[in-house]
Amino acid sequence: MFIIVTIYAIFNIKRRSLFQDYNNMSKFLNRILGMPVELQNRLFKYFTDTLAAVMEQAKRSGRFDLGILDLGSAGESVRRSRTLRFLRRHATGQAPVELHTVHSEVHYTHAPHL
């Protein structure tokens, strides 16, 4: 609550738009550095807790995506099991599209306990 009131007061005093520097990450982080450490910790805890909740909700609903992965770059065994080819028409001609189904296996080696 203290943060919201402070931000509101700053922007009312300066008569600036709240969204003027909305995408300036370095300015945002520098302003956080000016806060007391305890308040910084609480703010980052809020951000990490919120991110964890959003990710958990996305996983439950099936909308969580890991993004682009490099298959086989970490020593996994990757094999292509099926390829479907399509030819699609568009405004300037035709374009081939391929859908590859792959299987990936990770092999772990276990070191003996010391």
TrEMBL record:
Gene Ontology cellular-component annotations = nucleus
Species, as recorded: Diatraea saccharalis (sugarcane borer)
Q: Name one Pfam family in it.
A: Helicase_C_4
Which GO terms are recorded in the biological process aspect for this UniProt protein? regulation of DNA-templated transcription
Protein's name according to its UniProt entry: Strawberry notch helicase C domain-containing protein
The Strawberry notch helicase C domain extends over 14-70
InterPro entries associated with the record: SBNO_Helicase_C_dom, SNO
GO terms for molecular function, please? Answer: chromatin DNA binding; histone binding
Top-level division of the source organism's lineage? Eukaryota
